[in-house]
Amino acid sequence: MTLPKTVAEILQDHVVYELDCIDRVYLNVYQPKLVYPSGVVGFFKGHRGMPFVSGALMDPISKDFVRSIHRFIEEGDLDLVHFQKGERKDDIAQGYLAEHDGSDAILFVGRAQEKARVYRTEKRVNPVTGAAYPWLVSATALPNHFYFYGFDSDFGPFFMKFGTFFPYTAKLCFNGHHYAQCQAAKAGIDFEALDNGFLSCAEPARLQRICDNLSAAKIDAFCRKWLSRLPHPFTAADRRAGYR
Fold first, then answer.
1. Structural domain boundaries in the chain
2. What does the pLDDT look like over 174-185, one tens digit per residue?
3. Residues 52 and 134 sit within 8 Å (Cβ to Cβ)
4. Rounded to 5 degrees, what are φ and ψ at 27?
5. Confidence band, pLDDT 50/70/90 cuts, at residue 223
6. Cβ–Cβ contacts within 10 Å for residue 167, how many?
7. Which residues lie below 8 Å from residue 98, measured CB to CB, with a gap of 6+?
8. How large a percentage of the chain has pLDDT more than 90?
9. Quick check: 153 and 113 in contact, CB under 8 A?
């Protein structure tokens, strides 16, 4: 009687080498002080010196931020792509990447309406005095989000997505395999790349060390590098006060 081979047994005859590497990484980028309503009160009253907290104070920040994004697009002569529902954003990015030379650059900016957690003020009434007063609440909305699709010479293709409502949370997405490909090319390691991995490598041990050395500190430096280059919702004074 002959037992059928398992998938592992079949694959072991065809595996040339094994590589442990982080795959796609999708990170939340946010200001910890603004996660809670009390922190938002501290931002406007304690830091900016406002007598009250209201959505009316958030609106000018949002408008300035959006204006700075459009100015960034215009000055960089970039395309603004309006993402459609059901459209694969990565397919659009591939078209821009195919013509790119591998240097640090933002390739295009995308825009889409997406659900986000935001803060709003609602009117409440004091049951004793009958006086109305504003109250800060957490809510959801569908603001525009701007996607900055770029290429980093150390990390490869990436995008950073910003919401345009306070507190302007963001997402950073990159692929660890692309990081390894960029580093291997810089190190002079001969390899054949797949879209999401490696088909072959002349020095797999060196390549594995590259993958192992992708640390939180390197990812943090990569994130902050592009935060310093892209439009930012918080002023220099805000950032000096720790709102970064």
1. 7-240
2. 999 999 999 999
3. yes
4. -110, 140
5. very high
6. 22
7. none
8. 75
9. no
